[in-house]
Every structure is written in structure tokens, then in C-alpha cells.
Amino acid sequence: MYKLFFISLILLFLTGTLPIPMTRSLRNSITFILLILCGLFSAAQAQHDSTVTVTHKDSLDYYDMNLEQLLKLKGHDLPTELESLVNSLIAVASKKPLSSRESPSIVSLVTAEEIKNSGARDLIDVLRMVPGFDFGVDVEGVVGIGTRGCWAHEGKILLLIDGQEMNEMLYATTQFGNHYPIDQIKRIEIIRGPGSAIYGGYAEYGVINIITKSGADINGISLSALYGQMQNGMGRENLSLAAGKKIKDFEFSITGLAGLGNRSDQVYTDFGGKTFDMAGKSSLNPNNLNIGLSWKGLSFRGIYDSYQTMVGDGYNSVANPPYHQDFNSMLGELKYVWKLSDKITITPRVNYKRQEPWLTPKTDSVPAFNFLAERITGNLTLSYNLNRHINIVAGGEVFNDRAIERDGGLFVDSSKTVSYMNYAGFVQGVLKYPIVNFIFGARYDKNSQYGDALVPRVGLTKKMDRFHFKLLYSQSFRAPAIENINQALSPSGIKPERTEVAELEVGYQLTRKSILTVNIYNISTLNPIVYYVVGNNTDAYINFGHSGTRGVEAEFKTRHEWGYLTANYAFYTSQGNTEVPAYMVPGHSDLLLAFPAHKINLSASINAGKHLSINPSFQYRSESYGYTKNPDSLNPVMPVLARFNQQFFANLFLNYNNLFVKGLSAGLGVYDIFDEKVLYIEPYNGPHAPLPGPSREFILRIRYDFQTGKKE
């Protein structure tokens, strides 16, 4: 009863229909307080979970027990939903699957349930709620990712979808905003820290590993549709379809996404004062096809991804008229898991990657950009379980990068084609002892163009009943991409940037249904690859100085019969860690451009009946800085540093499962309830003014999962 009372008040406040005069900030605060009270009363109703003394452990490591131990197991309480989540096995941070609490990286796990309940429109909505992650604008309307205060858009965070590398090859960037399909995601495993010792030169600051639903998970057909309406125009119209099944040893899955979208419905103003109304003219149109086939140990994965955009904000000034720009990728993988014995597994793998990034046709005002980039990779990995406590993984990898200029231009060496070879070897050991787990590893890369890189890592981790800790040290590197090499400003060329990261995490399971985790980190990058614009829109790259941040992140999770709640906090400072002028905020040595020092996220899912869930989420961002239009009419094209006020974003999504028939769900929600308006700021002193994001957006989502027979 209390829960329904407070939920009703929240809805009245959010819609503004409660007849009480108040300011917007006061309404925001009261709404926030009502949500907390709702959670507290719900927790009180389940107080028996925390007040009754229990003797059961938080979890058992069944996967590490021998047969004798399993046979002796008697009457152990089943793990709670929270325990199943925090102790689930993940492989993103180590070749051998380990529980997230013992994995040798600072990791986050996002489940399909959380994505569905949140009403997330795209990956930006999902990743914004992860500690430390944020977004900024690059050029030509492209929005990229940052982490822990650092701009990570070009080759510093690796994005994987079902093991396929989505970063484009010319600059190693990823593009966010109504792009990658999220309706068929099974889980997202995230390394919030270095991953180069496993994944190589695109994983310097982090890894986002997206795992879509398998054929057994789909077990039939799934169809979903999403519509979003901003205040001044359509936000998105997306349709997603999936089919899959497992039949004995054969399994297949086919998923597809086709959609239309717009970046914003607001007005963009460049440094020169020219304006561009983005409503209906800032297209973000995704087309994606993902096919998975497997038979016994043999598997194939193929992905086609076409991301069609409309650019009106231009490169360093408003483009009139707007022009088309596409990002096209075809990716394929053939893999065989050959299990020689219970102890030895050999996995050969071949990958092919073909891309046309930043594809731009020539117009009267815009030169053509037409490159084809390809990568062929061969990988051989051996995993050896010496015993239940020791696992060794070792292997080698070779790949060839090739690019062709297809529209009359030339590379810096006056050729139409460039080709680079890369050779790599890697090793990792996991030693599990009663008092501590010891993880060590290293990767060595040698490239025919930019030389070599060796990145070791070591870690100590352990879960002891309710407590766990991680003490980690890693080196990582960012490999120069094709255009980084081609546009090197220095005659000596461009070299990989090197990073050292030290991390400490501690966590404690407060009750069987709640856990608190805190981590601190220090990032130090030597010779970062810095982007400049010289002359008339000419890109240039140079290794310069050092950069980095240090900070703290904390997260609280609780799950009960009434639902769940997650709250996290992230703080960074660049004080003494950064000397790159392009990243720094003049007069504020503790901050970097675009990203706020403090971020607080709160998300919850409240069960309001058997089928209905109410899902609010909130984000607080402290002040940030970026360059914007100069108000001085005598010098209008010289941008000035501007302070952007703190912001408070609130979202609400109502989801109803099994509407009329089993498997049919419908959701209705609103993002940015108080119309704070998202703003993407350029995280370096470059040519682009802040890019407006969407205003308040109302969304409608319908999904139908039709399953045939029982899952195998």
C-alpha cells in the first residue's frame, strides 16, 4: 500500500499535474526524495531478509568443486538473485571464465533484464549508467565515448559484438547514437580499465563486450518495435527481428535491425555563429544483420552493419546543405573449439573485417572521402588446465591491415594502397589458492610500420565469504590506426602510446540481497597520440607529453521481491596527471574538457503487480567545461572557454509483460523528464562547437517473443 501511494505521488510530480506551485528544481528534489522513500518502505516490507540471522554462505563455487565435494553437498540454500548476478562467470577480463568478484579487472555486468526494464533507446542510455562512462562530440556529428575523464573515442576503448571488433580501422573510432541493436542483447560485460594484455591495441582504457542472445535463448521468433518522439520532431523508428533455435548439436540465430532516427531536434551553432536546425535533418539510420551458426565445436559469425548519417554541423562550420556520411562494416569469423582432453583445448580462429568508414560523397562544399579498409586475422589459442587450481592460456595472432583510397587521393607516400603486418604473442596464467588468486599475463605486438609494444599485467583477487578484493597493475597501449600513421605531424612518424594503470577494488556483501563495491585507480599515459587540425581542415597526429587521471568509483546494488536498485558514483581528477594543452581546462588543472568531475547514477525497477514494473532512473552531472562561440562581435570565429552548469536528468519507463498473450510486452516512457537537454561537448580544443542532443523524448516500445517448444 505504501509503495502504491508513493508511486502515485511520483507520477503526479513527474507529469506536473499535482496542483502545488513550485520551482523545477524543487520538483526535481521532491521527486527524488519520494523515490528513495518508496525504496525504503519496500525494503522495510522485506526486512526479514536482513534482520534474521542466517548461516549460509553468499555463494558456492560449484564450477571449482571436484566430484567428491559435490556429492557431499547437502541442503545448501539456493543463491539469491543478487548472488547469482555478482557471482556469475564472465570471460571478458580473462581467457578463463571467473566470477565477476574475482575477475582480474574492474568490471561491470549489464543484463538483458536491466536493459529491457530501463527502456534504453540505444547504447548511450545503457553505458551512461555505468560508472565513469560519458560521451562527447568529435567532428561531423559523430558522438564518441570517454571513460574516467579521458577521451577514449579513437582506439582507446574496444567495442566487441559477439567477439567481432566493431571499431573502424582508419581512426579506430566507434559511433554512438541509435546505432547498434540492443533489443537482442543477452548481457554486456565491461572492463572499466586496461585490456590490451588480452585484446591488443584498441583496448587501452577499456573493453565493451556485447553478447547477443543465442539460438537457444531465442528459441523461436522475437519482434520488437521502438518509437520515440522529441518535442520538435521524430526521435527514432526502429524495428528489430530475431529468429533462432537449437536442435541437438546444431544451433542458429539470425537478428536484424532497421531504423530511422535523428540526433537532435535542437539548433546547433558553430563557432562563427552560423546555425543549423537539427530537427529532421540529423539522421541516424541503422541497418544491422547478425548471423550465428554452430555445430558441436565449429562456429561461424557474420555481421553486416550500415550506419547512415546526415551531417549538418559540418567539420568546423555549418554545412549548407547537409550531406550524407556512412559507416559500413562486414565482419566474419570462423572458429573451432577443439577439446583434446579435459585439460587441453585448442582454438584456431580466422576473422575478416571489411569497412568503409566516414564514407562521404563529393558535393560543391564537401570533398569526397572514400576509403576501403580490410583486416584478415589468424589466431591460435591453447588453454591448459594443469589441475583445478591452475590454468594457462597461450597463443599467437597475426593480422594484415590494408587500405585503399578510392576517390583520387593519395596516402602520404604517394600511393593508393597501404598495407601493414602485425604479429602478436600472448600468455596468461590463473593460479587459484585458498588465500588468494594470482593472475599474470602479457602480450607482445610487433607492427611492420610503428614498431613493437609489450604490455604485462598482474593481479591478486579473492572472494572470502562476503568480502572480496582486487589489487591490479596493468600496462596497455593504443596502436596507431591507418590514418593516424598517414597523417603523422612528425617526420619520424607516430608511435604507440603507453599507459600504466594501478587499481584497487574492495567489496562487501551487506546482506544476501545487497552489495557495496568501491574502487580507486590511477591512469598514466606516456606519449599520447594527440589530434590536431592544421591549415584548411587538415587532420594531424603527434605523440605529445603525458596524460591521465586518478579517481574513485563506488556502486551499491540490491535486489528484492519488490524489484532492484543500483546506485553508483564516479569521481576523477587530472591534477598533476595531464600536460596536454588540447585536453586541459585553463584555470582548472583538476579537470579535463567536456567531462564532469562528479557523476551519480540511480536506477531502479519496482514491481507494481505481477506484470507491471515501474522503472525510474536519475543522473546527476557536476559542472563541465568546453569551448563555444565567442560573444565578441569583433572576433567571432575565435572560440572561448565556457562553463556548463550542473545537470539533473530523470527518466521513467513503465513496462507491462504478457499483455493479452504470453510473450507480448509493451512499454511507455519518457527520457529527460525535466528537459535538461543533453549537450555533447568536444573533449579537446578542436574545431567543433558543442553539439545538442535530444530534448525530452517520449518512447513507446512493443515486443513479442514467440517460443517454439522447450529449450534444449
Write structural notes for this entry.
The protein is mainly β and 712 residues long. The chain contains 10 helices and 44 strands. The protein has a 22-stranded antiparallel barrel. It is globular.
Q: Sheet with the most strands? A: 22 strands, antiparallel, barrel
Q: With helices defined by DSSP (H or I, 4 residues minimum), what is the helix count? A: 10
| Rough outline | globular
Tell me the total number of β-strands: 44
> Structural class, from secondary structure content?
mainly beta
Low-pLDDT ranges? 1-64
Rounded to the nearest angstrom, the radius of gyration is 25 Å
How far is the N terminus from the C terminus?
Answer: 41 Å
Q: What percentage of amino acids are in beta strands? A: over 45%
Query: What is the mean predicted local confidence, pLDDT?
Result: 88
**How helix-rich are the residues, as a percent range?**
10-25%
List the helices and strands and how they pair.
Layout: H1 2-15, H2 24-45, H3 48-51, H4 67-72, H5 81-86, E1 89-90, E2 98-99, E3 107-111, H6 112-118, H7 123-128, E4 133-137, E5 143-147, E6 150-151, E7 157-161, E8 164-165, E9 185-191, H8 196-199, E10 206-212, H9 215-218, E11 220-230, E12 233-247, E13 250-261, E14 267-269, E15 275-277, E16 284-295, E17 298-311, E18 323-336, E19 338-339, E20 344-359, E21 371-385, E22 390-405, E23 417-432, E24 437-447, E25 451-464, E26 467-478, H10 482-486, E27 497-511, E28 514-526, E29 529-534, E30 538-543, E31 546-547, E32 550-560, E33 563-573, E34 584-585, E35 588-592, E36 598-607, E37 612-621, E38 624-628, E39 640-644, E40 647-656, E41 664-671, E42 679-680, E43 691-692, E44 697-707
Parallel strand pairs: 7-10
Antiparallel strand pairs: 1-2, 3-9, 4-5, 5-6, 7-8, 9-10, 11-12, 11-44, 12-13, 13-16, 14-15, 16-17, 17-18, 18-20, 19-20, 20-21, 21-22, 22-23, 23-24, 24-25, 25-26, 26-27, 27-28, 28-31, 28-32, 29-30, 32-33, 33-36, 34-35, 36-37, 37-40, 38-39, 40-41, 41-44, 42-43
Helix pairs in contact: 1-2
